[in-house]
Amino acid sequence: MTAILAIETSCDETSAAVVVDGCDARSNVISSQIDVHARYGGVVPEVASREHVLRIGPVVGEALDAAGMGWADLDAVAVTSGPGLAGALLVGVNAAKGIAAARGLPLVGVNHLEGHVYANWLNAEPPPFPFVCLIASGGHTDLVLMRGHGAYEMLGRTRDDASGEAFDKAARILGLGYPGGPVIQRTAEGADAPHKLPRAWLRGSHDFSFSGLKTAALHMAQDLGLYPPPALNGDGAEDDPGREAEVANVAAGFQEAVVDVLVEKTVAAAESAGAAAIALAGGVAANKPLRERLAARSTVPVHIPPPVLCTDNAAMIAAAAFFNLGDGGPSRRSGPDGWERAMALDVSPGLSLA
Ligand code: KG4
Ligand code: ZN
Which residues, judged by CB distance below 6 Å to any ligand atom, belong to the binding site of ligand 1? Predict the structure, then answer.
């Protein structure tokens, strides 16, 4: 039995988890900073770092308590070392180094994107190799072919905005707040006649593009008199039912366009790669229409973690660490046998997967 304590602080969630043998999540404590950042309309890096500093100690303690474990039960410490916000990552990496040094435990630096993929191993039947994974988050939209543990081949990626970023920007245009994904999904449920928005197919490539869609949504909002939203122009028209109905129709049209492209391009990539399965990962994978449409459209089995494991959490970091211990892949191991290496672990804000 291998128990790994993992820490995740790459963006605006302070999280710690204890996972046994890479798939049995005994605890997964997530302290979200959404309320703190919402008033600014997005994540403020300096504020995120300070919040992580305040929260990391209690969150780690809570993760051990919830797992019913003590320091002596741990076999390794894993931590997200990138990609993410430099100052935010530094808090987690230094906390993990401290614990590893104090307890004489190996330290594993984990690629955050690899963590998202490994959420598919937690408390569920993992996808069979080779599979195609769509990693759709606030910072990334990647289509990756995974042939084995730690073996990634990049099939396609966004050429401009990430899909989660597009959700966040569309929500901002419509005056819906932050984070955009969940609120667009909720708002779209009230649509009676979704507006049609364009899709960028980039035929012949597995790449994505979402910036044109964002601009089209802005122009549509302007034409419909929805932009700038009341909160920005200060005319206090928040409770206008006509406005609410139109906002819902733009939100629904926007979501349909994103989901359409993500589903069709993921299915096409899986077919051309001869994949045995499709996996979803990253915050946007929490999107209900995306989950339903992909499952309905694919001819190979579709694996999707529950929504709480799609958005940022530490359990996925522990899973990635377990399956890549010592193989020198994107996530790197060091330990009592290599203290210099462990203490030299640095943050890599721009790290990629392949
Ligand atoms: O993976 P994640 O938690 O953090 C990053 O690594 O970026 O992803 C956050 C992103 C945000 O852009 C958020 O709007 C989006 O995931 N998201 C969603 C949903 N829940 C979160 N997008 C669409 N539908 C959702 N239900
Ligand atoms: Zn993430």
Answer: 11, 137-139, 164-165, 167-168, 179-182, 185, 282-284, 286-287, 311-312
